[in-house]
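Quick one, probably user error.
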C-alpha cells in the first residue's frame, strides 16, 4: 500500500509538462500536495463559477489532485495510527465534514479514516469527473478494499441487515397485479426474443422502438452477483460508504426538485427499503456513470451487442428522424445507471443518441412518441440562465385529463406506443423518440447510448 501511495504522491508532485493543471497559477500549485484543503476550496469555487462543460480543465485537475493528496494524507495517517482518532484535521471538523455528506451514521466500513478517504476520492469523481486520474483513484480505492479484507477487524452483522436486506420490498418476478398504479397497455411496442444482430439491424431501418426479451440472462447482475440483493450492493460499495449524486423529488421538471450527494447506504435507508424514513419522499440515482466510479459493478454487466450495429442515417427522407441534427460521434457506448424506488419519473423528453435501456431489477412503465409527433408535445425552450430545455416537453404526462385538455389541447392527438419493461428485458429507443418513464417498483436500469 505504501508503494502505491508513494507513486501517487510522486505523480501529483511532478505533473507532465503538458498536464492542464499547469495552467493554474504557480503560487497555487506550490501548495500541492501538502496543503490540500484550501486548494479543494478554491477549485470548488471555480467549478461553480462556470457551467460544467465550460470549466477550464486546470480547475477540474486541481480539484482532483488536491482531493487525491488529501486522501493520501488520511490513508498514511490511518495506516500509521489505526487506533488514533486524532487525524490530520481536528475531530470536531472531521465529524462536521462527515455529517455534511452522510449524516451522523459514520464508520460504515469499520474504519473511519477509510470512509473519509474514500469519500474524498468520490467527490473528485462526482464534482470534477476525476479529470485525468480515474485509474489512480480506482487503484487507491482497490487498495483500501484489500486492506479492509486482510486487516480490519470483522464487524458484527446487524440483525436487521440479515432479516430485511436480502431483497428489495418487491422481489424478482413479481406479478403486475401486486404493483401499485400499473397502467393498462393499450398500444404495445413490438417485441422480439433475443433477435440476431442481422434481425436487429433490419428492425432499426423501421425507426421503431423494440422490446427485447431474454437479452440479459447471461449478466452476472441477474444471477450470481444479483443487483436485486441490497446486501450485495452494499458490499460492492464498501459497506455503503461510497458517495453518490441523487435527485430529490418525483421529476426534474417539478418545482420542488433538488439534488444531493449522500452515501449509498444512506440512500438505501432513506428511500429504498421498507422502513424508509419518509416513503412519500423520493430519491433517485439518475443518469449517473456509476460504473466508471465503481468498476466492480461494471463487471456485473455487458454492453449489448446491438450497440455495435450501424443505425440508419438520420437524413433518410422517409424517416421521422430526418429533421434531427446529428450528435457527436461516440467511440464507445455511454453507460448510465438509474436506481430508485417506485414512483420516480423521467419526464417526457428525447435523447441525442440511440438507446438500449436494460432492466435489471423491478419494472418500469414506458411510453414513447415518434419525432413526427413533436408539434403535439409542446417542447420547452431556453430557460433562465441560458439552459436549453428543448429536449423536454412542457407536458406532465401524469396530469389529469382536464388539466391536459386545458393547457395542452394538442397533446391528446399525439400517437404513442407503450410497454411495461420487466427484469431481464431491454428496450431499444431510437434517437429522437420522446419517452416518459415511471418506476412501478424498486428499479435498477442501465442505459447504453450509442450512434
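Nope, works fine. Designed sequence:
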Amino acid at each position: 500500500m505504501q508503494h502505491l501511495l508513494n507513486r501517487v504522491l510522486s505523480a501529483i508532485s511532478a505533473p507532465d509538462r503538458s498536464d492542464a493543471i499547469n495552467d493554474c497559477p504557480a503560487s497555487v500549485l506550490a501548495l500541492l500536495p501538502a496543503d490540500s484543503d484550501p486548494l479543494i476550496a478554491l477549485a470548488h469555487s471555480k467549478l461553480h463559477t462556470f457551467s460544467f462543460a465550460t470549466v477550464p480543465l486546470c480547475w477540474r485537475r486541481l480539484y482532483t489532485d488536491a482531493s487525491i493528496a488529501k486522501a493520501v494524507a488520511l490513508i498514511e495517517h490511518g495506516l500509521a495510527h489505526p487506533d488514533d482518532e486524532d487525524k490530520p484535521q481536528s475531530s470536531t471538523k472531521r465529524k462536521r465534514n462527515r455529517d455534511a455528506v452522510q449524516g451522523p451514521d459514520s464508520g460504515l466500513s469499520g474504519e473511519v479514516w477509510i470512509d473519509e478517504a474514500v469519500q474524498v476520492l468520490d467527490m473528485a469523481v462526482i464534482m470534477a469527473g476525476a479529470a485525468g486520474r480515474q485509474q489512480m483513484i480506482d487503484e487507491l480505492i482497490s487498495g483500501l478494499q484489500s486492506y479492509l479484507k486482510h486487516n480490519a477487524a470483522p464487524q458484527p452483522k446487524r440483525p436487521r441487515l440479515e432479516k430485511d436486506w436480502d431483497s428489495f420490498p418487491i422481489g424478482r418476478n413479481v406479478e403486475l397485479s401486486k404493483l401499485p398504479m400499473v397502467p393498462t397497455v393499450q398500444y404495445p411496442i413490438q417485441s422480439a426474443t433475443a433477435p440476431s444482430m442481422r434481425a436487429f439491424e433490419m428492425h432499426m431501418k423501421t425507426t421503431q422502438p423494440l422490446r427485447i426479451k431474454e437479452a440479459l440472462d447471461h449478466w452476472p447482475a441477474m444471477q450470481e452477483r444479483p443487483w436485486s440483493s441490497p446486501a450485495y450492493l452494499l458490499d460492492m460499495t464498501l459497506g455503503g460508504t461510497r458517495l453518490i449524486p441523487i435527485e430529490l423529488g418525483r421529476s426534474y421538471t417539478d418545482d420542488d426538485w433538488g439534488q444531493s450527494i449522500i452515501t449509498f447506504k444512506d440512500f438505501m435507508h432513506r428511500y429504498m427499503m421498507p422502513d424508509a424514513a419518509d416513503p412519500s419522499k423520493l430519491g433517485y440515482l439518475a443518469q449517473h456513470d456509476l460504473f466508471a466510479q465503481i468498476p466492480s459493478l461494471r463487471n456485473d454487466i455487458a454492453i449489448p451487442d446491438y450497440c455495435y450495429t450501424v443505425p440508419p442515417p438520420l437524413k433518410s427522407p422517409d424517416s421521422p428522424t430526418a429533421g434531427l441534427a446529428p450528435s457527436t460521434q461516440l467511440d464507445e457506448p455511454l453507460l448510465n445507471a438509474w436506481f430508485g424506488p417506485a414512483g420516480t419519473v423521467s419526464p417526457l423528453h428525447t435523447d441525442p443518441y440511440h438507446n438500449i435501456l436494460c432492466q435489471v431489477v423491478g419494472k418500469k412503465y414506458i411510453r414513447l412518441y415518434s419525432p413526427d409527433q413533436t408539434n403535439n408535445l409542446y417542447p420547452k425552450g431556453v430557460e433562465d440562465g441560458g439552459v436549453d430545455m428543448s429536449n423536454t416537453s412542457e407536458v406532465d404526462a401524469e396530469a389529469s385529463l382536464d388539466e391536459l385538455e386545458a393547457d395542452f389541447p394538442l397533446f391528446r392527438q399525439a400517437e404513442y406506443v407503450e410497454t411495461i419493461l420487466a427484469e431481464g428485458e431491454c428496450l431499444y429507443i431510437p434517437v429522437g423518440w420522446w419517452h416518459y418513464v415511471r418506476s412501478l417498483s424498486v428499479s435498477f436500469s442501465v442505459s447504453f447510448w450509442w450512434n
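DSSP finds 14 helices and 13 strands in the chain.
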